[in-house]
Design brief:
0% strand
């Protein structure tokens, strides 16, 4: 396999892994707070 192709594949894999980690840990959506109301959830 060509050396340049190997480097491109390695850098692509690293970039995808970093993008996944950034998206998973740093771009978390805030959890919606459940307001207790008259929906029969039994919380009061």
């Amino acid at each position: 396999m060509n050396n340049i192709v190997q480097h491109i594949l390695v850098f692509t894999a690293v970039a995808l892994a970093l993008a996944f980690l950034v998206r998973k840990f740093f771009l978390k959506k805030p959890k919606a707070k459940k307001a207790c109301g008259n929906d029969g959830c039994g919380c009061h």
